[in-house]
Structures are given as structure tokens and as C-alpha cells.
Amino acid sequence: MVAIPTDGAPDARWPVLVAFHGRGESLRGAKRGARGWIDDYSLPTSTRRLAAPPLTASDMLGMVTGEHLAELNAGLSATPFRGLIVVCPFLPDVLRGGRGEADGKQLARFVVEDVLPRVYRETPAIGTAVSTGVDGVSLGGRAALFVGLERPEAFGAVGALQPALDNDEAVRFAELAQEARAKNPTLALRLLTSDEDYFLEPTNELSRALIARNIVHRLDVVSGTHSYEFNRGPGGYEMLLFHDRALRSTAAPGP
């Protein structure tokens, strides 16, 4: 599934975001699963609202209010959302336990060698590594880390929303990030979790492991549950905003 902006000039070119869905969609089969971000997580609504701020607490399904919502709107006022091509591959129920890294290598090969070349050929993509990002939620966040850190030369930014991690994996993911940043020093890295996320502590542990290795990254902890509502609210908005800015910037990695 590919979502292409429709409101730009005829010759407009766009950054590309590869966005992986969560495990619930993995269990629904390829046809329905690949539409997870579109049908189940309301990506078209999030994109439309970002283009017509201000965002409201209702947009965030009540999970983000007050100061953080004001910060998002101030950021949109200063730097308007411009849009992305969002590519939503189907993610099988893989990447578990000892098979995780091997599955991740296969998935990275598929995305970088099969999916992205076709997207660059058949859509109005900018078509460069620095303008291409990868992200995802829960199992999809885990997938995004494996893909982006395995093939860092293919991406300008790697993000993960509420990534499905275990505490004892933090060191290994930090090692992968260190290797990835050595190959691509400008690779931006962002982790996002929430105060009621099942994976809050493993995500914090990964951030601590990255800090211990002096790996510049961004960690955001927002309000919200690990749920479809989070994906439709803070998760989707935060993902789109981060990549819209990171993939249009030549700044150094990090916040």
C-alpha cells in the first residue's frame, strides 16, 4: 500500500517513509494487513489534519493536551507540514527471539532492494537515501529498527513507535545502532514510547544503552496507551511530523 500526497504542484517530489504496522495486522493477512496504517490507524486523517493546523485534543483522542499539544502546534506554525509518500509493506509475524536478527536482515533486503527501487521509479519520490525514512509501531517499530540499522546507507532517518523490545535486547540494538551510525554518521534516530506503553521500560533501557555508547538520538515519552487509539492519535501524528522534518533537513543526527 502506498499513500501519495495529492495537494502539491504537478512536478512536486516528496520524501518517502516506509511505515510498518503492528502485529495485529500481521495476523490478518497480507491484503488487509498492508492497509493497517490507512484503514486501522487513520493515516489519511492524520495527514489531512497536519496540513490544516492547529491540532486539537480531539485529534489526539484526548491523550495529548496542554503543554505538549501547544508545542506541536507551535512547531507546525514555525515549520508547516509538507507531506510524505508513505509506503506500507505487509509485515509477517516474524522477528521473534533468536530469529529476530536473521529475519531482520531478510526484511531489510526486501525493503531496500525490492520495495524502494520500485517506489522511486513509480512515484514522485525525491528518491535519495537522505530523503527516505523507516518507522513503525510495536512489532513494526521492532522491524523498523532492524531494517534501518541493518541498511543505514539507505535511509536518512530511523524511528520506532512503542517498539516491541525486551530489556535484554537493549545492548544488541545499541551495538547495531553504533555500527549503523559508523556507516552513516548523519542517520537520525528517534524512539517514541508512552507512559502506558507495555514496552516503556525496554525502550528506556535501549535509550540508556545508546547514551552509554555516545550515540546521539531522540527519546520522546508522551501520554497514551499501547493501543489502536494511540496509533490513530499521538503515534501517527508524531511519526509523520518527525519524518517530514528529518527527511527534509541536512542537519546533524539527533533532536
Secondary-structure blueprint of this entry?
Layout: E1 2-3, E2 16-20, H1 23-26, H2 30-33, H3 36-40, H4 43-50, H5 66-78, E3 85-87, H6 100-122, E4 132-136, H7 139-150, E5 157-161, H8 170-183, E6 188-196, H9 200-212, E7 218-225, H10 228-246
Helix pairs in contact: 4-10, 6-7, 7-8, 8-9
Cα shape: globular
* Gyration radius, in Å: 17 Å
CATH class: Alpha Beta
Tell me the CATH architecture.
Answer: 3-Layer(aba) Sandwich
Placed side by side, the strands forming the largest sheet appear as: 1-3-2-4-5-6-7
Count the strands? 7
Task: Estimate the helix proportion, in percent.
Answer: 40-55%
Strand composition percent: 5-15%
Main sheet: strands, sense, barrel: 7 strands, mixed
CATH third-tier fold name? Rossmann fold
Structurally, the number of domains stands at 1
Mean pLDDT: 94
The helix-and-strand class reads alpha/beta
CATH superfamily, please?
Alpha/Beta hydrolase fold, catalytic domain
Low-confidence stretches: 250-255
Number of helices: 10
